[in-house]
Amino acid sequence: MDNVIDFINTNRDKYVDQLKEYLAIPSISALPEHAGDVKRAAEWSADEMRRIGMQNVRLVETPGFPVVYGDWLGAEGAPTILFYGHYDVQPVDPVNLWESPPFEATVRDGELYARGAADDKGQVFMHFKAIEAHLKQNGKLPVNIRIILEGEEEVGSANLDNFVKEHKDELKADVVVISDSPMFDRGIPSICYGLRGLVYFQIDLRGTRSDLHSGSFGGAVANPNMVLAQILAQMKDKSGRIRIPGFYDDVRELKEEEREQWKRLPFNDRRYAKELGAPKLFGETGYSTLERVWARPTFEVNGLLGGFTGEGAKTVIPAVAMAKVSMRLVPNQDPDKIAQLFEDHTKTVEVKVTRMHGGKPWMTDFDNKFVQAAGRAIQKGFGKEPVFNREGGSIPVVATFQEILGLPSVLFGVGLPDENAHAPNEKLDLGNFHGGIIASAFLYDEIAKG
Fold first, then answer.
1. Residue 260 annotated as catalytic
2. I need a labelling partner for 94 at 20 to 30 A (CA). Which of 101, 144, 358, 380 fits?
3. Where are the beta strands (DSSP E) in 344-437?
4. CA distance 263 to 242
5. Which residue out of 48, 71, 150, 153 is catalytically annotated?
6. Of the candidates 82, 108, 132, 116, which has an alpha carbon nearest to the alpha carbon of residue 398?
7. Where are the beta strands (DSSP E) in 87-179?
8. Which position among 48, 71, 88, 426 bears the catalytic label?
9. Nearest Cα to Cα of residue 413 among 367, 377, 383, 445
10. Does the pLDDT value for residue 367 go beyond 90?
């Protein structure tokens, strides 16, 4: 491995310049005006995969954006990794809060600022460079690798499940590796062994045919804004517990030994609140902050729209009101069941509820051989033994790989909790990026050793 690591160290500045090219493509899958850019990011990914030595590289068309596929299968008798990532990115609004243009990657204080730097182009790119280093120096990889990159992760991966079902034979592997998650904290590398699931809804209320004068008609009709506020306010009690009947029935409770392990992690509520800019923390009574974020379900209001919101005053009763809400789910909760419970719970009022997307929760045993191999690789890449943790976010495809392909997954992320993914000034720590390339190179070697 020495020659591989020397190659990576020699080219570290070059890697940053190459990554900037990738990040310059505004591949925002949520916005139709960027459809051409998303396709361009797919083509860039495929070109880079060919350049580093991957074989059978092609774009596989779907009803949405293409899946980029490539493989290198020359390690006879060795395990096969299926690497998954995505080349699409989140919208950048509000643009005025960015300190530098979101698609002109800029280095400040050892961090690379750009949309997609951490989520997920930067973490995909570190595997490209690890693969390149092995192939350039040794002419081969210690394992077989298949890569699939999608362009719809940020809009719910609507076409990915069908792609996996239709290409089961081409996706045969021993383990899935995904780098799309943060480390526990700066200077504390980690391996994630659990994710929350997700159900996402839009709620629409209509009260009247058009907006009404609040003086002439106030008191005669229901105000959709008020009705919506009442619906949302009734979803939780004062202790933060969700009031949807049956919501907690299938929740897998935390084991006491897991709670004890998390208590030993270097986490401080006061510092966490300060970093978030929150006056104080709030959540379900009876659980620590880490337990609430990693292992308890949630109900959140993601957006509200209704009535007059411009400057000055306009006394109207709005005709319509809208909210977007999400529920994060934990192991044993089924998204379809929770969605039905929510829909049933809102039928007490005249309201339109639209299910938008979702995903199942996932958890693996952190002592399985692939997770342990990842732990050894992280230690070699970062010079520190990793901690093992869960993550509050969702990667629905992890459950897909487990259910359709029967494959375990390893979450091998090097982002940071303050990387601003999905927010202005998204960034990737360049030390983590470089350590991640080295750790990825070691990961292939550790999995090959079994």
1. no
2. 358
3. 352-359, 362-363, 387-391, 409-411, 427-429
4. 25
5. 153
6. 82
7. 106-108, 111-113, 144-150, 175-178
8. 88
9. 377
10. no
